[in-house]
Amino acid sequence: MAKKLHYFDVNGIGESIRYILHYGGQKFEDVRYQISGWPDKKVKDALPFGQLPLYEEGDRSLHQSLAIARYVASQSKLLPNDLWEQAVVDSYVMTIYDFWFTKVIPFVKETDAAKKATLKKEILDESIHFFFSRFDKVLKEHNGFFIGKLTWAEFILVGIIEAGNLFLDYEIEKNYPHVKAVVQKVLSLPGVKEYIAKRKVYAL
Ligand SMILES: N[C@@H](CCC(=O)N[C@@H](CS)C(=O)NCC(=O)O)C(=O)O
């Protein structure tokens, strides 16, 4: 069945989905939209909730990045079989998104320069440490992975770190050795590594 991932031509919350698809060797059409000039009213109005990413498989479509990532992860064998383990992985993924949507995105969206600087300072001085010291501890205690083996949670972590670093002009993982190791691990996985070697460096 034909697979298509629709997202902007940036890393954002779409790149980890691309990584998961490439890791699993899944053939898909990587449909990209330019941010400059967005909203393209015709495209936006056709989206179920006006936002990207959107995933299509045959004549079915799915929105919400985590629902998409989890689904394609199951096809890339990155979803544990055990239901408890699935829930634990979900809990880490949702926590990674808490960092993204409650800390990074308000900073990205802020248009007042002084307020934006304050938000950035809070992220660099407090939020990164709050979230990433905890991620680092969990990874350390579980053999370098959230639950002791590679799952889609590591992909989501790396996607958010990369996108966050681009927005913040920072290296979120620098003080967290186990997080840093996960970044290196995921980026050098088969499928992911080859994709990265070919992709362009995004400005965002
Ligand atoms: N909760 C949604 C959020 C989707 C979202 O925020 N999409 C952004 C790009 S990262 C978007 O489509 N922005 C353009 C718009 O809202 O018009 C998800 O995880 O998929």
UniProtKB/TrEMBL annotation:
* Top class in the EC scheme: transferase
In terms of SUPFAM superfamilies, this protein maps to: GST C-terminal domain-like, Thioredoxin-like
Gene3D superfamilies for the chain: 1.20.1050.10, Glutaredoxin (3.40.30.10)
- Residues in GST N-terminal domain copies: 1-80
The GST C-terminal domain is annotated at 82-204
Which reactions are catalysed by this chain? RX + glutathione = an S-substituted glutathione + a halide anion + H(+)
Name this polypeptide is given: glutathione transferase
What InterPro entries does the database record attribute to this sequence?
Glutathione-S-Trfase_C-like, Glutathione-S-Trfase_C_sf, Glutathione_S-Trfase, Glutathione_S-Trfase_N, GST_C, GST_superfamily, Thioredoxin-like_sf
Q: Please, which domain of life does this record's source organism belong to? A: Eukaryota
Any single Pfam family the record assigns to this protein: GST_N
